[in-house]
User: What shape does this take?
Amino acid sequence: MTAFNIIKSLTRRGNVVVGSGCYAAAIGSNDPNNIIKIGNSITDPWLDYYHLVIKLNQGNPHVPKVKYFMCDAEHNYYICIMERLENEGWNPVVELCKDYTTRMITREEFVNIAKLHSEAIPCANTLANILDKIHNHTEVFEREYTNEFDVDSRLLDMHAGNFMYRDGVVVVTDPWCENDMSDLVDVSDWVDRSLYKTTSTSW
Assistant: This one.
């Protein structure tokens, strides 16, 4: 069994692909409040994010709420059932989070600027705590320095697609990618080639 076989099986049952990226696809669940994330590689740094941050901070509103998780190392895939979130695209909150995570601004500056985005960031220190953990576990902060690090180092990958929202509150869903992904079978490309993919703004 592989991730692609599981994705095919679920879509044949009527589940819809609502989003996909380099490492994983998000499949609609029978529960409209959840999605099924299926990852095609156990080298996906999201697994680090799950174990180092998400799992340990389920009470923090700025990480996804996970209902079920399993990883099959032998067959190189993982499955996670998590809450369904909304994608609002690029906005200043994304850049603010990246600026703080890369230490372009101080925590005090972050907290003050966050007051301008109180709906997305109701408590700036709570979000800053998550961004601090991401900072502490990031190995490569800028793509221009990738040649100086191992291929499997965690590269900061903060863009609009990796931030989603729960009732307007920002959630950091996937802050890292591998330093070198040249050998990766891109799940989004496979989905586009192999499956009918619907366009959605949530997963």
Q: What stands out?
A: The radius of gyration is 17 Å. Helices lie at 3-12, 46-54, 92-101, 107-114, 124-137, 187-194.
